[in-house]
Amino acid sequence: MRVQRVAPNSGHEESWTLLGDDWRPIEPVEQFLAHLTDQRRSPNTVKAYAHDLKDYFTYLEHRHLRWQRVRYGELAAFKPWLRTPPENRTARVATLPFLRPAFSDATVSRKLAAVTSFYEYHRRHGITLGFILEDARREVRTGAPSFRRVAHPPRTPRSATASLRVRVSPHRPVALDDSEVERLLNATTHRRDELLVRVLNEGGLRIGEALGLRHEDVHTADGFIDIRARVNANGARAKTYGRRVPLGAAWFALNSDYRHYEYGDIDSDYLFIRLWSSTRGIALSYPAVSDLFRRLSRRTGLKATPHMLRHSYATRLLRAGVRAEVVRQLLGHASVATTINTYAHLTMEDVRRDLVTAGILDKEVT
Asked: Are residue 225 and residue 293 in the same domain, yes or no?
């Protein structure tokens, strides 16, 4: 089996599919991935699902199982199979516990989520999978209930789905402080690159949103830029809904200098383009930005990525007392809960400052 890119048609984004050993698409996976594409899911998301389902169908092949007839226990056994190093997966012996797992807990969790989403899609489209889903929902009971369990029953029944879940430690986003951002800016050698770093840091854009910016999205007189969801020639992608992001006057002034001194008379709709290569004038791509940040990291000694600047922006706003709902709108999160959960990483200094402001603690610590 192999994951294969599907070239986009005119006006459509690229997609991905899973091919069998006969080089034909595996039909149930193809239907699911096509559904994700129709729902405007990111091509990178579709690609990740394709790789996750490749692992699952490889597992089914090793166990001689049919995807429509998998029992719950066989589905649950996919989790330890994923952790087993590939060279040991076909062996009939137990894996030694001190061997390094093939995948991290976060990756295993993602792959299990992909499989359950795959089955849920087919259940909703008429495939009879009740034996799997009912087993997954069935309450687990072992022996007679204890007095404690009778006297204090759990609020929700213990579900067999617990064995499909992986406990993953919450990920704390990595942000750069003001001095580190300044070092990055000082390391840029072109106005275009400085403009890109600044729009990520001062507007909290995702890199795909920045690379998809067109000149018509920049509203200098009003002091904001438009983030729009559309198909871009460089594969850059915004979310499925748009928003407006305010920026300071210095950013718009830098953009004017960039247009005058570096962009010149190049005919392109895109704001960020290639300027010093044989492909001059085409929209800047993800790989080009990766190369830029590798160069900046070498010059500054910082391990910096575009998304760190988005985290820096959000952290800076929250520490300044901007309401989470406003930060949610600026970042383009679907809900304020996403914003709160993502940035629930206040340091003890942040906590102390909030308590002092609320009058709970004295300002000075003795």
From this structure: yes
5 is catalytic: no
Whether 343 is catalytic is: yes
Q: Are residues 160 and 203 in the same domain?
A: no
The β-bridge partners of 246 are 224
Model confidence pLDDT, tens digit, residues 126-169: 776 645 555 554 444 444 444 344 344 444 444 444 555 656 55
Specify whether 313 is catalytic.
no
Phi/psi at 67 (5° precision): -60, -30
Confidence band of 209 (pLDDT split at 50, 70, 90): very high
Buried b (16+ CB within 10 A) or exposed e, 48-70: bbbebbbbbbebbeeeebebeeb
102 and 250 in one domain?
no
307 classed as catalytic: yes
Residue 62 among the catalytic residues = no
pTM recorded for the entire structure: 0.71
**Annotated catalytic residue within 295, 307, 319, 352:** 307
Q: Which of 122, 239, 244, 295 is catalytic?
A: 239
